[in-house]
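#onboarding

Welcome to the new folks! Below is a worked example of what a typical request in this channel looks like: someone posts a single protein sequence, and someone else replies with the predicted structure as tokens. Don't worry about understanding the tokens yet, we'll cover that in week two.

Example request:
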Amino acid sequence: MQKNEPMRLILAQPRGFCAGVDRAISIVERALTRFGAPIYVRHEIVHNQWVVDDLKRKGVVFVEELDEVPAGAVTIFSAHGTAEAVERAAKARSLPVIDATCPLVTKVHNEAKRYALEGRDIVLIGHAGHPEVEGTSGRVECEVYLVSNAAEVTNFTPRDAHKLAYVTQTTLSVDDTRDIIAALKARFPDIKGPDVKDICYATQNRQNAVRELAAQSDVLLVIGASNSSNSNRLRDLGEEMGVASYLIPDARAIDPAWFAHAKTIGVTAGASAPEHLVEEVVAAVRLLFPQLEVATMDGIVETVRFKLPAEVADAA
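Example response:
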């Protein structure tokens, strides 16, 4: 870039919080208002360190297991969902529980249970160790086979090749799962699965936007946590399109050397990243390039809103 030539920065549309994340955070904040601190949350409410740290400052205690929760303390399950065994354990201790599971994750749980009732074992398309995968696996009593790519479709032998169904982790898009589903159908012609319209709208929308953004950018910045599946995938998509792509938690992680040969910077944010982090990144880039030109892509404006649980629905 010429010294006096202005740098362009393009913001993805859509980006940042999805409806499930917005709902989960609202549940925790409303629980603090209604019941007071401390509020206990099993696992990170969403995969973003800024969000987690902010809630900690307000009086939220994050735990990994229910035995870390004091008797009688208000307990919230994270947006990623949880296994039925955890629900039973909470009930056995009479813990007052508020479930912040994303409704789209709950939909996957219900699909898995419906297939299990048909006598089918489940192929779960997702990432090992992800809380959503653990939660979905714990919703059914049948066999669950986890696959994360098409090559792994040949790595398991089902009890009955004619009685299988598949469901997917919601942070995977139609594009992420297409090859895996094709491999499953080729190997197991009788396998059943949900319609592609059941894939999380937010994941697909953000990936579509990043493809369009990367085509216009020399450098791509993805704001999100390193343990965020959807944020990592956005960064990967940029790299797959041949664009230098960086996953950053916030503006402090920016390296000016990334922009040495760039004319256009693309910026997006994972579904768990708040908008103020985007604003801080724009401000940090503007300090480097005072003549920065900022524009927002044309794209989908998401209007989805999910109903809050009764325990906090009327808490201001």
